[in-house]
# Entry
Amino acid sequence: MPKLKPETQQARRERILDAAEICFARSGFHRCTMQDICKEAGVSPGALYVYFASKEELIAGIVERDRAKLAAELAELSNAPDLLTALAKLGEHYTMEEPHHKGVLHVEIGSEATRNPAVRATFRAVDDYCRQSFEQVFARAEHEGKIKLEDDPRLVSEALSVIGDGLFWRRAVDPDFNVHKVMPILMRMVSAVLNPVTADAGASTVAKSKTEAAQ
# Structure
């Protein structure tokens, strides 16, 4: 059998992960079978096992793919001139634009993490990465004079993680949940916590920091 080109292998791997997301969200981690995923992806069991040996490895692949996507988005967020607007756009993407099964999958992985050590380790690793990354974004924004926090950036990151988890959960379990109406209220709450400063105040803070550093 001829060896597949790297781009073909990558495309097949992505298709398998897409299928696993749908199957896990639809049936749950335990009811879903590897055969279900093969059928959804349109591949043979032999082809699937070339890439993933278990459902736990599929979860790890899904989570790592999401982490890589978030890393790129956080880099843009960190460099955004208007942090609050960029943060709102990121929140809207994950709670409004992404398909419904992604929110269900988030809840399913979190639930499985409470009883499956392998999934727990994967879940904790990416959860820690997310919280630490947002902490760095907020610390940098405060240093640059874009926001004025009253709390430690780590605690702010923790609080916003709770809001994000709640949004995923509510959207997954409540078919009548209207995220479009709730999001503006949440963003006002986030704005109160981040306390964005005006451009003039931000420039003054940065100038003061540079003066202090030079002394």
Remarks:
- The two ends are 69 Å apart (CA to CA).
